[in-house]
Amino acid sequence: SQTIHQWPATLVQPVGSPLSLECTVEGTSNPNLYWYRQAAGRGLQLLFYSIGIDQISSEVPQNLSASRPQDRQFILSSKKLLLSDSGFYLCAWSVRGLTSYEQYFGPGTRLTVT
Amino acid sequence: KQEVTQIPAALSVPEGENLVLNCSFTDSAIYNLQWFRQDPGKGLTSLLLIQSSQREQTSGRLNASLDKSSGRSTLYIAASQPGDSATYLCALDSWGKLQFGAGTQVVVTP
User: Fewer CB atoms < 10 Å away: N or C end of chain B?
Assistant: First the structure.
């Protein structure tokens, strides 16, 4: 069966510090991978999606970047965090079935920028 | 641009009542629609996926309908239980990219 891991589970970082969040998927090959952010009082927003190694699309201009060095690894980074980067970050994966792209989510990382 | 609205934003019902959660969207050119559940501080759990060619999906006490012509989906939860307390999110899929509603926070009281 497929599983998705995210770490760390929680993170408190000062403004201006770097960020690296990691997501890995097990039990599937060639997944589409996604990073979402859920800010306080706001809905889920798609940040990045990737259809393959080094193939990444950004959905929203921001202070963050994403990389996919391996097929089942997706990394979210920032060189200098802003207060507005605080939120709940969720990684998701999907594989195209016969007719659909059902998405499955990881447990999330709670980021607080102080 | 697709806009997804969920009404009501919050709902409180006594145990045993049926729950009706609504999701409306502005662009009917969707690939599928997913309903998710989110417990506080946790990730999302997929409940049901309705493909654009389907009108409904059922899983246990859950039933979701889709009416593309009117831009609506409804999630029904029969005979609610306290364990059903969570936030329910609908999401529209346009070729693998999900657009989420803000969610309906549900509390089922014993």
Answer: N
Question: Considering chain A, what is the average pLDDT of its residues?
Answer: 91
Cβ–Cβ contact B103 with A under 8 A = yes
Evaluate the omega torsion of the peptide bond into residue B8 and state whether it is cis, within 30 degrees of 0: yes
- Reported as a single tens digit per residue, the pLDDT across B23-46 is 999 988 877 899 999 999 899 999
Amino acid at A41: G
The per-residue pLDDT for range B56-76, each reduced to its tens digit, is 999 999 999 999 999 999 999
Structure tokens at B47: 């409940």
Residue pairs spanning A and B at CB distance below 8 A: 64
Identify all chain B residues contacting A110, using CB atoms and an 8 Å cutoff: 41
- Residue B55 near residue B66, CB atoms below 8 Å: yes
Shortest Cα distance from B51 to chain A (angstroms)? 7
Residues from chain A that touch B30, judged by Cβ atoms under 8 A, are none
Residue A54 exposed, middle or buried by CB count within 10 Å (0-12, 13-18, 19+) = exposed
